[in-house]
């Protein structure tokens, strides 16, 4: 799992937002521009990672309700949030990735990215 | 509530129209000026010109032009149409405020070209999503940076999306 994927998962798990908003992030999710602002990842990194997580079934996307967008006079936003599968598996995968991190810092070369996100 | 125009939204008008429509049993199609809007589709942008026609399903039940004339007592008109007409007229200021405050939808030729790299099923969604983000981004430079970011990102993103589409169709 790349560091960018880890960062994105941390955000989707609400670990990069204040305590009060964590539930909102988990239930409503975040739209792409919000994710871009929080993670500070370039589009060429953020959206392909999101897409791969979606293909893996960890992230689901949905359109904002028409009424909300209409009330604010703008086009609808597309929200991204962790799916049930993602909410279960992401913390475990993140913990495993974190556990491997010290080995990387010690100069051990990382194996290829095959099979990773 | 919009702080600038002190008006909840055009949704309140839609709710009023829906209640007139009888809990979704009837569908009104209202044409305001030349534009036709369906109440059921949540899209109702007003204009100052209330020359509208009210249809119930496909049947005309009232016409605001004739309704306005009926105010002088020359002819009778459908009470349902009158109620809808009154609701719409009462909302003139609200609609004007919404329209004045409404953010313009940002369209970009570059984004339309970039969308061509995506499979057809993803194209419209991606364009709508990014129009929304461009509307939210303040400043032409930042918007240009967002578009520029997508110029660099699209080959990789399109490859990722297309890889999934191929997998699904296989």
Write a structural description.
- The complex is a heterodimer of chains A (117) and B (170).
- Chain A has helices spanning 3-12, 19-27, 32-39, 43-55, 66-72, 84-105, and strands at residues 30-31, 59-63, 78-82.
- Chain A is globular.
- The N and C termini of chain A lie close together (5 Å).
- Chain A is 59% helix and 10% strand.
- Chain A is mainly alpha-helical and 117 residues long.
- The mean pLDDT of chain A is 82.
- Chain B has helices at residues 11-20, 64-70, 79-90, 92-101, 109-115, 120-136, 140-169, and strands at residues 28-32, 35-38, 52-56, 59-63.
- In chain B, strands 2-1-3-4 form a 4-stranded antiparallel β-sheet.
- Chain B is flat.
- Residues 1-13 and 21-75 of chain B have low confidence and may be disordered.
Notable characteristics:
heterodimer, A: mainly alpha, 3-stranded antiparallel sheet, 59% helix, B: 170 residues, alpha+beta, 4-stranded antiparallel sheet, flat
A few lines on this structure:
With 117 residues, chain A is mainly alpha-helical. Helices cover 59% and strands 10% of the residues of chain A. The mean pLDDT of chain A is 82.
Radius of gyration of chain B: 22 Å
- Mean residue pLDDT of chain B: 60
* Number of E-type strands of chain A: 3
Secondary-structure element series of chain B:
HEEEEHHHHHH
Radius of gyration of chain A: 16 Å
User: What is the overall pLDDT average of chain A?
Assistant: 82
Oligomer: heterodimer
- Uncertain stretches of chain B: 1-13, 21-75
Number of helices of chain B: 7
Q: Give the % helix of chain B.
A: 40-55%
């Amino acid at each position: 799992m790349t560091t960018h994927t880890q960062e994105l998962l941390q955000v989707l798990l609400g670990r990069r937002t204040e305590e009060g908003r964590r539930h909102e992030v988990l239930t409503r999710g975040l739209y792409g521009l919000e994710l871009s602002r929080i993670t500070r990842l370039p589009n060429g990194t953020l959206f392909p990672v999101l897409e791969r997580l979606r293909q893996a079934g960890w992230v689901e996307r949905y359109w904002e309700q028409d009424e909300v967008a209409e009330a604010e006079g703008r086009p609808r936003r597309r929200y991204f949030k962790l799916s049930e599968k993602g909410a279960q598996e992401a913390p475990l995968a993140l913990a495993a990735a974190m556990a491997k991190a010290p080995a990387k810092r010690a100069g051990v070369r990382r194996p290829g990215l095959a099979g990773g996100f | 509530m919009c702080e600038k125009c002190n008006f909840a939204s055009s949704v309140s008008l839609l709710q009023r129209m829906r209640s007139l429509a009888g809990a979704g049993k009837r569908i009104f199609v209202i044409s305001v000026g030349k534009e036709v809007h369906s109440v059921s589709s949540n899209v109702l942008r007003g204009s100052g010109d209330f020359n509208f026609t009210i249809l119930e399903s496909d049947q005309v039940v009232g016409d605001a032009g004739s309704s306005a004339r009926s105010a002088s007592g020359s002819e009778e008109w459908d009470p349902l149409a009158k109620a809808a007409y009154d609701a719409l007229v009462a909302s003139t200021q609200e609609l004007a405020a919404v329209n004045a405050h409404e953010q313009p939808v940002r369209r970009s030729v570059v984004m339309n070209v970039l969308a061509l790299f995506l499979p057809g099923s993803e194209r419209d969604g991606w364009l709508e999503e990014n129009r929304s983000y461009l509307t939210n981004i303040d400043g032409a430079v930042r918007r240009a940076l967002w578009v520029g970011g997508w110029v660099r990102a699209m080959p990789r993103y399109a490859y990722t999306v297309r890889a999934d589409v191929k997998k699904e169709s296989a």
